[in-house]
Structure formats: structure tokens, C-alpha cells
Amino acid sequence: MCDQDHFDDDKKDYEALGLVTRRQFGVLVGAGISLVLPQVMNAVAVTESDVTVKTPDGEADCYFVHPASGTGAGVLVWPDIFGLRPAFRQMGKRLAESGYSVLVVNPFYRVKKAPTAPNGAATPIPEVMPLAKGLNETTQMTDAKAFIGWLDAQASVAKNRKIGTQGYCMGGPIAFRTAAAVSDRVGAVASFHGGGLVIDQPNSPHLQAAKSKAQFLIAIAAPDDQRAPNDKVVLKETFAKASLPAEIEVYEGAAHGWCPPDSGVYNEPQAEKAWSRLLALYGKALA
Q1: pLDDT of 221-239, one tens digit each?
Q2: What DSSP line would sit under 12-80, residue for residue?
Q3: Nearest residue to 156 (alpha-carbon basis) of 52, 46, 281, 53
Q4: What do you get for the CA distance between the two ends of the chain, in Å?
Q5: ω before 115 within 30° of 0 (cis)?
């Protein structure tokens, strides 16, 4: 499914090393309240709202935020196993302030409306793992088509620009499959500490993504690379063979789950590095 089940082990290791501060993981995180992300330079005014997106399987509750005037390239955000929550709303809003029309989805809408993790990223993994196991290749593909179709129907989404998609943890392979499902619209894919990108099956997300026309950013946590050191090699070879631009990097000192600001292993310097590379990708591929 993903490497999220290693999250607790990585958090303990980082706490022991003094790399997780009380500010980064404590009462605020336990309450599901996001830490404050750095401000966007020259941020544009945005409009945000809770929206409902119809899919073949029901109605998905999502968060939509976009520039208050004009249009921006659409971006579809797949959260990690803890789902749609304040931290991902904050991340989506920050991206919109950079000029994008952003849809952050609740991937578990078939079972439960957000918030699906009662204590955000501090929720024990066993409590949310059944939600993740309820998803599969078919649900990911049909959802991807529905969500991008919804984005394309919004006045704030630029129709003459490609759409981007980004996923965190279990959202990584879903972002890959989004590129395969809607290959004519997706121009950029980003995966942050994505688990299960490379599996020994014909329908592996990396093989499906290689049939797209997108550009890729794949940010790998150091412990994940230690557990599966050959994945980065396979990814590089696969995308090179498909002639698809792909930036693939192991983020040293970053534990699995380092990007969301409510994570117990949130690493601001490395998260900001990943964020800057995301903006660089979108600046090239979604222009």
C-alpha cells in the first residue's frame, strides 16, 4: 500500500536524535492544528471554499482554493493516509497564493467525510489503515478522471494550460495513476515520500505513469531509500526510456512524511526545498 506504516518508527528515531522539536510535534499537532508555513512572496489574493465533486461512486467532499481574479493552472492534490485536514488546506492555499487553482480531495469519501483522522497526523496508523486499504487501482483511476473533469469545468482553471497533480505517501502512486488516467491533461506529477511507486506487477504505478506525457518530481525520504534502494534506479531508468523528464532525489535527513506541517517528522528546511522544486516543476510544465 505505502510506507506510511514506517512513520511511527521514523518519528521515534527523529525524536531520539533531537530532530523533532516540541513545537513541531506536541499539543498543536495532537489537536490537528497545522504549523504556520512560510509566507508566499508576492502572494495573490485567493478565494477558498468547501466543494462537493460528483464521481461514479458518490460525492466527494473537497477543498477548492484559487486566485480571486483571473485563471491559473489546475492542480489536483492527493493527501497522505491522514487525509484532508487543516495541514493540507494550508498547503493548498499556499499553492493557490502562488497562482494555481487547487483542489485538495478527501480520498476516503466513499466511507467517511473529512476529517477522516481525528487527530490529524498524530492519529495512530492502525486507525486509518482500513481507509487506505479500501482504495485500489480502479477507484484511483475513476476518481482522477472525475476530479480533473471537475477542475476543467471551473472558470478559474486555465484551459490552455496543463494540469498538475501531487501526492504524499499513499497519494504518490495515485498521482502517478492520475497521469495515466488523464494523460491528455496532466503535464506535471510530483510525489513526496510516496510509497508503492514501484511494485513487481504489470500495473505498477511507475509503469502506468511512464505511458503519460508528463514531467515528474519524485522526492524520496532517506529511510524509504534505505528500505528500497533500487526503486530510484528503476524510476530513473523507466522515465529515461520513456523520454519523460524526471527529477528524482533522495532527501537526506528527511524521514518518511517530512512535508506536511502537522507531521511528527516535519522537516522545514527539506520541506521548503521540496516545495521550491515543486514550484519549479509547475513553472516549466504548466506554463
Answers
A1: 999 999 999 999 999 999 9
A2: HHHHHHT-S-TTTSSHHHHTTPPPPPPPPTTPPPEEEEEEEEEETTEEEEEEEEEESSS-B-EEEEE--
A3: 46
A4: 33
A5: yes
Q: Which residue has the cell 506536541?
A: 26
SS3 208: helix
Dist CA 26 CA 21 (whole Å): 8
Strand ranges, E, within 160-222: 163-168, 186-192, 215-221
Residues 209/189, Cβ–Cβ less than 8 Å = yes
* Parallel/antiparallel/unpaired status of strands 246-251 and 101-105: unpaired
Q: Which residues of 172-204 are buried (b: 16+ CB within 10 A; e: fewer)?
A: bbbbbbbbbbbeebbbbbbbbbbbbbbeeeeeb
Contact yes or no for 61/114 (Cβ under 8 A): yes
| Per-residue pLDDT reduced to its tens digit, 206-224 | 999 999 999 999 999 999 9
Q: Report yes or no on whether pTM surpasses 0.85.
A: yes
